[in-house]
Amino acid sequence: MNKYALSAVIVAVGLAAAPFAFAQTAVPPGGAPDAAQSQRARPLPSERIEARLAYAKTALNITPAQESQWNALAAVLRRHATALDQQVAQRRSANRDQPVSAIERLTRRQAMMAEAATRMNEVLEAAKPLYASFDDDQKKEADALLSRGGPQRGHHRPRWH
Q1: What is the number of structural domains in the chain?
Q2: Is residue 159 a part of any domain in this protein?
């Protein structure tokens, strides 16, 4: 796969996908989380998608000629954010009092990975035409969006495969 196409896909996925850790709540040292914190430990993916899309659109200098390809990609990313919201809500409402076996955890992980692969395919199909329309400066910016560091870089960053 073309290095640039792969970069565009990863940028697009990074914009839309949320780590599955959103379903987990942080426990303060020495105690259980309070009710408000356990319900909303982090923002939902759909609460951040518009800001991320706006930032990327500005950073990439999307032209009027590229607007239709951008809108197609943005629609896919918005749909994925909404779907991830539903997954987070399901996990938050699940009965956490019952222990989950190792096999059940592996089964759940496998299902999540299959869903992530499906989402990746959809993002790839939407990102390819947009990336192909980019000029060299836009491609450089798309690649730079990928290489920027932050708290998600490194060992604990989300897995998008």
Answers
A1: 1
A2: no
- 40-64 exposure pattern, b = at least 16 Cβ within 10 A, e = fewer: ebbebbbeebeebbeebbeebebee
Q: What is the pLDDT tens value at each position of the chain, 161 positions in all?
A: 555 554 554 555 455 444 433 444 444 444 444 544 445 567 888 889 999 999 999 999 999 999 999 999 999 999 999 999 888 888 777 767 678 899 999 998 999 999 999 999 999 999 999 999 999 999 999 888 867 654 444 444 444 33
Instruction: Look at residue 26 and tell me if it is in a domain.
Output: no
Give me the residue label for tokens 């982090």. 42
* Cα gap 94→39, rounded to integer Å: 12
Cα–Cα distances (Å) from 117 to 93, 140, 145, in that order, read 25, 26, 22
